[in-house]
Please model this.
Amino acid sequence: MDFRFTDEQRMLADTASAFMQEVADSSATRQAMISDAGYCAESWQRLCEQMYWQGILVPEACGGLDLGFVEQIIVLEAMGERLHCSPLFSSVIATLALRSVPESAIAFSLLERICAGDIVSLAHTEARPDWGSEGVGVTASIGESGWTLDGCARFIPFGHSANTFLIVARHAEGLGLFVADNNQPGVHCQRVQTMDQTRAMADLTLTNVSVAREYCLSTDFEGTLDAVLDAARILLAADQVGGARKSLELSVDYVQERVQFGRSIASFQAIKHKAADMMVKAESARSLLYAAGCIADEWLSGYSDERALCEAAAMTSAAAGEAYFFTAGSGIQLHGGVGITEEYDIQLYFKRARSTEAYLGNPTAQREVVARLLLDGDS
Amino acid sequence: MDFRFTDEQRMLADTASAFMQEVADSSATRQAMISDAGYCAESWQRLCEQMYWQGILVPEACGGLDLGFVEQIIVLEAMGERLHCSPLFSSVIATLALRSVPESAIAFSLLERICAGDIVSLAHTEARPDWGSEGVGVTASIGESGWTLDGCARFIPFGHSANTFLIVARHAEGLGLFVADNNQPGVHCQRVQTMDQTRAMADLTLTNVSVAREYCLSTDFEGTLDAVLDAARILLAADQVGGARKSLELSVDYVQERVQFGRSIASFQAIKHKAADMMVKAESARSLLYAAGCIADEWLSGYSDERALCEAAAMTSAAAGEAYFFTAGSGIQLHGGVGITEEYDIQLYFKRARSTEAYLGNPTAQREVVARLLLDGDS
Amino acid sequence: MHLRFTAADEEFRAQVADWLSENLVGEFAAVRGRGGPGDEHCFVEERKAWEQRLAEGGWTCIGWPEAWGGRNASIEQQVIFNEEYARAGGPGRVGHIGETLMGPTLLAFGSDAQKKRYLPGIKSGRDLWCQGYSEPSAGSDLANVRTRAIFDEPSQRWRISGQKVWTSLAHESDYVFVIARTDPQQKSHKGLGFFLIAMDQPGVTVRPITQLTGTAEFNEVFFDDAVCSAEDIIGEPGDGWKVAMGLLGFERGVSTLGQQMLFQTELDEIIRIAKSNGSAQDPAIRQRIAEAHIGLRAMRFNSLRMLSGVADDASLGREAMIYKLYWSSWHRNLGKLAMDVLGPDAELLLDGPYELGRLQSLFLFTRADTIYGGTNQIQRNIIAERALGMPKEPRGTAT
Amino acid sequence: MHLRFTAADEEFRAQVADWLSENLVGEFAAVRGRGGPGDEHCFVEERKAWEQRLAEGGWTCIGWPEAWGGRNASIEQQVIFNEEYARAGGPGRVGHIGETLMGPTLLAFGSDAQKKRYLPGIKSGRDLWCQGYSEPSAGSDLANVRTRAIFDEPSQRWRISGQKVWTSLAHESDYVFVIARTDPQQKSHKGLGFFLIAMDQPGVTVRPITQLTGTAEFNEVFFDDAVCSAEDIIGEPGDGWKVAMGLLGFERGVSTLGQQMLFQTELDEIIRIAKSNGSAQDPAIRQRIAEAHIGLRAMRFNSLRMLSGVADDASLGREAMIYKLYWSSWHRNLGKLAMDVLGPDAELLLDGPYELGRLQSLFLFTRADTIYGGTNQIQRNIIAERALGMPKEPRGTAT
Model:
């Protein structure tokens, strides 16, 4: 038991922070978020080439770094701190999905392509009625020449820039995972306009899309999907914790500067206590996040089961989602009038807090997952 | 539309406040609550003889004052302010039940006896699974010689001192309302020890109790029971609002006196803002209470239907229950160390806040009632 | 104490409803339900024309004395008017600052000449007003006003210089009322004056503030030797604080009932969506919708108690002080509830580049509710000090 | 960063568990799970004997240096010991103030003579300690201490007079450590001394404080010319504040993990009841149980981060400061949750006159959690000032 960063992890955190400071200041973020792609291609290229963060969870054989989940969290937290607009999250989810299906040449080569900087996106849900397997809106039917996919998937982060999709589709006997390229006939993916502009989203429509048999990576993907989504919730929580901590920092900095009634408003108890509550929530979510990272590492290495992963993900997602929304919302309040202006960044954090809190199941839904584990069945 | 007390109502409020100051100071309350009966017989007698509050809702023909629901609320609010230990609440509920059943000589004479100071208690529930008709635990069967009652009812306020019970029992075709005296064979009622000692509670056990046909006041009491309980929730909310306001007052008085860090702690923003939040909750609950009083008056006089009463009761109960618990709980916090000592009264308010909040359905349950009215069915 | 309106009041209600349904047609049909908070930038020309139509019908300033063109309407009638106005979808009133703030201030503190000069323009819907209180360095701290007013003896005019901020409708207004420092020696709330200033002059510049919604509701207003005649100060130099504090009292009045009707339409919309997309079956959403409903009813009864108190003894009671804190917190929660009811679709805009749906605007704009017009923190100070008699904090330098 | 314990640690865990299961029998079987906060008044004699049994087994003061009888146990081992102790139902430690507060203070600030005089008695479980910090007029404001210490030259002893309050276990203790004013000219935190005083003397009187639970957990302690030898002051007169502040740091340590195990048994009990009485199907209760579970896990990981930080650079990190606020708020919410899970039966006592059930005690006693040892308000001040670097409030007189 050692609940500290290793020296290597600490170094990675410092590097990540420095790199983000360089490529993701406020003006870079604002420029990227209103661009067509929703991210800066040059920064992405630097991230892939100089940082190689897209390779953190990729096995060495495929050209990856084969580091741990905690390392992945460290960089996502740093990115969240800066509201970085980046398809990295997508590629990491895809990596986890590819690691979870039976080994194959296709999966191997996709992992290689991820390392090369290709964007690979998991397309799995219509988010109706929920974000899990119930929400799968693509159907797959098998024929002489292979599979045919039809249907829609929504809320694919940076899907409009994806080179390749990993598509979850319902077939006669369950869920499968299929591969399709963005330029394949019948594949249509388009960015949708969203309130939070820093995490671009796309809708995917599949019309009679042919997929060769070997591009079906799994026909028994349901349980795996759940685990991959749980891992995704932890990764997202890293973004949220980073954003929550930065929201607190920006707000404390602002109130220190702001003078009213003859003194810095940071000296008012109402302000101080709000800031203290923000810190309690942010740091507690962070503790849960790191523990979830350890558990996800154990899951990746086979020491922990899906139930432990599920519990860690639900707890962390609930806490991080609430912490981010609370700190960014309170942050606006601490900023006072300027908090609601376009000019200050706190509102961008607030919007990202909302979009991430709702994504993959909101805190209420996550607490219900925890409740199920605690209260239902024989457990 | 005139949302003010009339002059008479204002006078009644002043009288009530003065009378309570006389008979229900802290030491009187503490003496009464640990007595066997849980109330002071002498004060009850004075209340009945000098104040005649037990007659407020009794029709003139039965010797009552035939005043309105708002008047009843006014005195209950004053009693709640002082944590008065009194069976009045029971008698008022019984009055409402007796006014709601078909006219009869028995009902008439019971109303007369209520005016004379007899304690008449509605015994209706085992509170499992809920406080309404589902919780009725007494069964009534009809035979040659009349009705026979068997079963239990719990949480009867001051039931151990009741002269007569109005018993809700389930018969073959629905719910009925039956009358039994406390000294009748097979009737056994005993006080139970409760965390809040200011509102004594009793359990009633009925073993093969014979009730003559004319002592069955209604065989179709289900809808009426719901309405009577809704009215009871509003009456209870009066107690809660009184207690909430007093909790605030006691706490503000305390923090004004208490000096720490060289100044009255009432000057600290954390304290002031807590007090402000307490006031917002208490006064808002009070506004809902008075509106509910008006609506209950309309219901009594036939202008409003049970749905309006139900909505008003659920809203008021939810708000008053929360306001009381919040103000009394925060009141302990504002008192600091002495708040948790037996010596100071704020802890008595806190216990009464809890017991009243849970009684007849907690705020969550009441909000669900509101949600049903708003969201379900065609409404 | 009772909640029923008299027959006469109900007749008045019918009269209002009839007039509105006859007049909110044609050119005005499009502005039904538009122009409220968060939507102030829309249909401005139509809403200006609407002010004059209202005035022609005798429906502006109905609470004013008859001598100044009002109806001397009772509190009940004002409540009814505001309720029916909102129910009919009457558009956000561009004239509301003149009608509910400037007018009552003039009536209470203005000279006869000032009343004659300004009240008719407000009454007729011709002159629009905005308010100049907050400053960049004095957001919550009105006493810290730095805008200066210097009396120029030769021209017998005041010359105003400084900057105001968070001024809504500034770019549409004809006049602004401004608190400015007349005595630079005096600190805090002493030495302030209350000035009425024409917007259309070289010394006044308006700059919109773009908000998190992408739209601009508020403005900065710069005064650079703006002029104001000697007759256009209310009271004496040095009376500004007294006048301003009186004016803050007018902010809480019958218009709150109309505001609540707008809130009700928002809540109704949320309930409609919840029923249609299934979230009405989510227990947590049910609790929150019920809580919103209860909160809105409490707000209404708080207002009625407050208004009944006004009728009673002409002073605003305890309830008045909780109003801003209550509605702004409630409304902010409603914005979040709207998002959670919309579910995943809450993120999707109507269109690019940043066209928000109504509930998205609600969500984002309500974050301003707990800030402008006195933050929640300031409101709690006011409640604690004025309603509960708790001491002010010591002034001093933080360490 | 990983959560797994090493094989050696797991072996240590087994050793602790075995010893406890062999020793928590016979006379000690009855005290399993008893004597925690809110229950301190029970089984005191048995728990005193238990301290000595623990000491014989070498299980007191395991984190102390071996030179003073400890095991110099690693943080991991201390975590494990506390977890296993709580898991086995080890009773509330009457010796905990000596072991976790007095001992570390002596080790850090005491003279060699003082260490020799006092550490063995703590280590062996013979001497029980209590703490004398708070005073009636200085609850949250330690600097405002009024208890006086006057050095009597002829007898070469200090004479202590004054009153302390909220002293738990005072009536059972052999010694008390006290902050008292050595220099009456000095205000605030200057001029204080830190004294070690024997309880068994005529100048010391203990009076229990009856709480809202009807039981007495805390005491008032009156000093009326109580004596204390010249050697029994830690550091110099005037060093008291420094010593006291150091001591406050020791309050947050590995014992938090044990505390959390107790919380876990409370939560488990609540879950058990919820499952058996059907409230586990109530959506609102489900949310709150899940929240309690998440909160408790967060508390654990907060502690582990804090402890790892201690091992790292010997200073308590940001996480340490949030601990008291976090656990006390969590625990208070748990008390309310317990009542709501019990439903209507929550009101019913075990017996008259006022015998509370375990969860009722929890509910009532947890109201004290957010007050003693620094109120939540004080904790937030500390977090804001020390962890976030925000300025202190100006001192001054309220107006």
Q: What stands out?
A: The interface with chain C takes residues 34, 127-129, 131, 154-155, 192-197, 201, 259-264, 266-268, 270-271, 329, 332-333, 336-337, 339-343, 347, 350-351, 354-355, 358, 362, 364 of chain A (CB under 8 Å). The beta strands of chain A are 120-123, 138-143, 146-157, 164-171, 174-181, 187-192, 201-211, 216-218, 259-260, 263-264. Residues 56 and 87 of chain A are 14 Å apart (CA to CA). Chain A has a mean pLDDT of 96.
